[in-house]
Amino acid sequence: MATDEKRSVRTVAAPDNLTRARRHAEVTERVASFVAVLGAFACLVLVMIAVELMGVAV
Hints:
Number of strands: 0
Largest sheet: none
Number of helices: 1
Order of helices and strands: H
Oligomer: single chain
Structural class: mainly alpha
Helix content: over 70%
Shape: rod-shaped
Strand content: under 5%
């Protein structure tokens, strides 16, 4: 009887862990996209600085 109760608890707890994993994956994806956009902006700024140092008018 005790093992049946443990199984039901595990079955109930599993969807919560799955939901938490999905939420974690979504947050990770958002952070990764934010870092990618930030990196692209930083590269653009570096290119603009390099162009200014070379003396080419933009």
